[in-house]
What does this fold into?
Amino acid sequence: MAPFLIYRTGLFFRFFMAGPGRIYYTIPDMNPWHNITSLSYRQIKELQNSRLEHFINTHVYPFSGHYRKLLDDNKINPRHVKSISDLRLLPFTSKLDLVAKDDPQRFKDFILQPDQEKIRQFWPKDRLLKLAVQSLLKGKGFVRESLGKEYRPVFMTFTTGTTNSPVPFTYSRYDIENLNLSGSRMVNLFNIQSDERIMNIFPFAPHLAFWQTFFGALESGVFALSTGGGKVMGTEGNLTALMRTKPSVILGVPSYIYHLVRFAQERKQDLSFLKKIVLGAAKVTAGYKQKLDEMLSDCGAKGVLIFGTYGFTEAKTAWAECPAENNVSSGYHLYPDKEIFEIIDPQTGQVKDEDQDGELVYTSLDARASVVVRYRTGDFVKGGISHGPCPYCGRVTLRLSSDISRLSDTKDLSLSKIKGMLVNLNHFAEVLNNIAEVDEWQIEIRKHNNDPYDSDELVVYMTPKKEINEKTFSEMLKDKLMGATELAPNEIKFVPLDEMIKRLELETANKEKRILDNRPS
It folds into this structure.
């Protein structure tokens, strides 16, 4: 038997059997991160085109019940999908496709389910030959186990269930490796060194943020303490762990990180050991970063770098900002070897050009188990996607603007209209987060006298950072909200911090209850 050789060429490993009639295979290198961040825009597109054609024809069409039916019903030949521009041939996928009240098992249609017949029918000859060689050398059991590791679901996370019932998304061991990979890429992006310590304060739950952090730290070999957030150890317990561990990096949900730092500030704790804070699962505004930075400085932590991250369950991964002076949002550095993003007009579905605003659409290039293609995220990106050297870290890769508003926020709460007006609640958050005097806030939408046929009422609950003239402040706040949303609150209520913490469920829920729709059905 001739010997086998493996060598690396660019983004791939070459594998071949030496000797007459040599047989070649191309196996993707799982982590060509340094190579990818120096590719030109043309090279990135060439890589994505190649991977897209391979992924659709070798994994998605053969093994996905949903997408095979979708392409067949629309008379789309998968072999015609050869480039990013060909994605426009495919219909969009949305959350409505993932859930069905009459079919709670709908999510299984999105799980790749290969079998022997489909593999023989759809896989290219070189891949079949590789399986045959493996079967000959190591036995059929080895081949079955290898395919099982690649495709068999072994792990699950869920959407948070704000729009519908929580939707499960499954991971194979191959997907776990990708989760490790994206986590380690973020650690590299943050420039976290192996001798640093990190503290993961994301809520312990079957949600992406906690597990992305957990697996990323594990893969990078960085010491990490995962506390499970406020509802596991409580704020007192988290602060005790923070002071004992003295990590240089903490990661968590913005509202709870803010609460924890405020808790430390009230107890005059020295947080000078903190160097970086990584935030996820919610939008991070410039006003928020400034407020958090001021509190950290008061605790002795000067010049802390504050990063935002972005991710969603259906992608089974997250992306992050790089360090930037004055905590400017640098944009989320993407993994063009693992996904394709499109920006579309949310009304027409037309694909937008570079740097243009629009809704974000996601297509996986390397997932197994649960897979989505042309998935409409419901997230609106102001500034779209750009390429070229990052002005802060110099990496040459695609970057997604950090200015993302969840269009689903309004849809989740059925807030298409308040007082007969279409309202974007993200504008309320932007105003309230950027007022220096505001410590915490909550908005409640209700009906007058709790009568479903009476008029809508908008109430703002407010906890100021210091003593203020409530009448003067209320007038200023109403003016700002009116200017941003064309809607003035019916009432502004000032509540003490301990009551606000309970209202927001900061220490008990996975996400704070920032906006409540208490209107009767």
About this structure: The longest helix spans residues 41-63. The chain has a mean pLDDT of 83.
